[in-house]
Amino acid sequence: MRITGGKLKNLSLNPPKVPGLRPLPERERLSLFNMLGSVEGVRVADLFAGSGIVAFEFLSRGASTVVAVEMNRRLCSFMREQAASWDVELRVVCGDVMRFLSTPPEVDIIFMGPPNNQGYVTKVLDRLLSLEYTGLVIVQRSHKEDLPIYAKVLRSTGKDESIIEIVKLELSLRGGSHED
Predict the structure, then answer these.
(1) Is the pTM of this model over 0.85?
(2) With a cut of 50, which residues of the chain have pLDDT below it?
(3) How far apart are CA 66 and CA 62, in angstroms?
(4) Measured at the alpha carbon of residue 172, what is the angle toward residues 132 and 37, in degrees to the nearest 5?
(5) Are 178 and 122 in contact (CB under 8 A)?
(6) 84/167 Cα distance (integer angstroms)
(7) Could you write out the three-class secondary structure of the chain?
(8) First to last CA, the chain
(9) S-S: 114 plus which of 32, 45, 56, 120, CB 3.0-4.6 Å?
(10) Per residue in 77-108, is it b (16+ CB within 10 Å) or e — as a string?
(11) Burial (0-12, 13-18, 19+ Cβ within 10 Å), 150
(12) What residues pair up with 162 in beta bridges, in sequence order?
């Protein structure tokens, strides 16, 4: 895997082999950042960060702060070591995404690539809705997993098991939530 743009362009990541790890492919990362345009100065949270490839792409392209949230300790260590070797500032939170979202995240963009078809897309979006989060949310999901009605799709790319959608939460549609 290599970084597709910015100051770290063409540098490669070689994360440890971890079951279930599915980094966002290069083509989809390029499409995502083409849809987003400039991310200079934005604050980002990468939920279910895995290898950190998306977090590193944001840093490479000028995001001011990036926090990567991941439960797997090996991947957390990998991201910290990679950030140190590239001399970039990545905050790694090794823990549960829902616990991280116990308070509103102070970020402009949230990227999430949760395990497919396990209900995390709706759970996380429900939590963000309850926190009245007003920034952009980028969702990587399977076509088998629907978005809740309050997630307004602004841009979309990909297909099948890797749909990427930029969404804005419609706080006025809170009744469309699927809260536990």
Answers:
(1) yes
(2) 176-180
(3) 10
(4) 65
(5) yes
(6) 32
(7) CECCCCCCCCCECCCCCCCCCCCCCHHHHHHHHHHHCCCCCCEEEEECCCCCHHHHHHHHCCCCEEEEEECCHHHHHHHHHHHHHHCCCCEEEECCHHHHCCCCCCCCEEEECCCCCCCHHHHHHHHHHHCCCCCEEEEEECCCCCCCCCEEEEEEEEECCEEEEEEEECHHHHHHCCCC
(8) 37
(9) 120
(10) ebbbebbeebebebebbbeebeeebeeebebb
(11) buried
(12) 159
Tokens read off for 140: 């990587």
d(CA 61, CA 6): 4
Superfamily the domain 39-171 falls into? Vaccinia Virus protein VP39 (3.40.50.150)
